[in-house]
């Protein structure tokens, strides 16, 4: 068994409308699925991605209108990377972020790649990373109707950054249970801390974890601008059941099999309390909508369909 790379990442937002405005109008991502949190249907669950929301391109958000601001710290998924095709694309994005008054740090180098660190409108930490020299997991395809130039568009999730006070137990789970390989380290210049890099599958920008070791930080308090969980790609449902068996054998408490309709999953926490998910590549977002109309209407899994009217009445319409 081998995890194929990053599947999706789910973060927190206070306003679905403001979230859609930023991620579609500024970053040019496609809203590929407008649905609800299946565990709490009173809140939106928004999925952004490439042209069809391929696995490895999905950035998702739960809307909680009264949620407080995230307090950055330890035991967290601390930064989310978004892949762009090449170094030239970063020059385009540097100009575009400046044009939209998005705070960013300009083009810098990180682990041998050019990147642009920046924050969204709710202070979520993000990085645009160039695929100029990527030799690992391939990216997706930017949406041709993007409000940003598709030639330079976002094509997937890049390295996901974790921040922990002690790497030892996390590294044990990541390598011995999940099968990641330790491939290098670098110094994170702003704080001077060490970052350890792990990869899975074919490796590259779409299959890396960058773990920051920060014993000096307090635990994070999750809020808007924070990240709830990260999911990793599993080939199919049969293999997912094998992963669940491995988690049980490793005595890692987990959710057991969960059917999310668009993919099948299992959830568990690594020793520093960070929530991981393993999710199948299929069946995908065209299960209940055709490719041309993805994200245009409220999509509900079959078990919630009979409550559509009740659910819809509790959600504010989104203009986009």
Automatic annotation (TrEMBL):
The keyword Oxidoreductase applies. Keywords: Dioxygenase, Oxidoreductase. InterPro entries: Extradiol_RC_dioxygenase (IPR052537), Glyas_Bleomycin-R_OHBP_Dase (IPR029068), Glyas_Fos-R_dOase_dom (IPR004360), VOC_core (IPR037523). Coiled coil: none annotated. It comes from the Bacteria. It comes from Alkalibacillus haloalkaliphilus. Residues 5-131, 156-281 form the VOC domain. The keyword Transferase does not apply. Pfam families: Glyoxalase (PF00903). This is Putative ring-cleaving dioxygenase MhqA. One of its GO terms (molecular function) is dioxygenase activity. The lineage of its organism: Bacteria, Bacillati, Bacillota, Bacilli, Bacillales.
């Amino acid at each position: 068994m081998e995890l194929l790379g990053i599947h999706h990442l789910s973060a927190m937002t206070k306003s679905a409308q403001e979230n859609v405005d930023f991620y579609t109008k500024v970053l040019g991502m496609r809203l590929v699925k407008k649905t609800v949190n299946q565990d709490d249907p009173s809140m939106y669950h928004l999925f952004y991605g490439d042209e069809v929301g391929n696995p490895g391109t999905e950035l998702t958000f739960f809307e909680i209108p009264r949620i407080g601001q995230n307090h950055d710290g330890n035991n967290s998924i601390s930064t989310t990377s978004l892949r762009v095709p090449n170094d030239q694309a970063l020059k385009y994005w540097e100009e575009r972020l400046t044009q939209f008054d998005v705070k960013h740090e300009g083009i810098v180098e990180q682990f041998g790649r050019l990147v642009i660190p920046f924050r969204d409108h709710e202070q979520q930490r993000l990085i645009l990373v160039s695929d100029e020299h990527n030799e690992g997991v391939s990216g997706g395809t930017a949406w041709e109707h993007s409000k940003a130039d598709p030639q330079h568009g976002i094509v997937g999730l890049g390295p996901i950054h974790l921040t922990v006070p002690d790497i030892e137990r996390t590294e044990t789970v990541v390598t011995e249970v999940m099968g990641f390989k330790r491939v290098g380290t670098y110094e994170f210049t702003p704080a001077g801390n060490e970052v350890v890099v792990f990869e899975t599958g074919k490796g590259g920008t779409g299959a890396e974890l960058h773990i920051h070791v920060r014993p000096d930080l307090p635990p994070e308090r999750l809020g808007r601008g924070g990240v709830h969980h990260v999911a990793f790609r599993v080939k199919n449902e049969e293999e997912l059941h094998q992963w669940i068996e491995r988690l049980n054998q490793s005595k890692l408490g987990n959710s057991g099999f969960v059917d999310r309709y668009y993919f099948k999953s299992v959830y568990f926490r690594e020793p520093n309390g960070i929530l991981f998910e393993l999710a199948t590549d299929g069946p995908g977002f065209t299960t209940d909508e055709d490719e041309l109309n993805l994200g245009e209407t409220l999509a509900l899994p079959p078990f919630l369909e009979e409550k559509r009217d009740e659910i819809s009445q509790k959600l504010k319409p989104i203009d986009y």
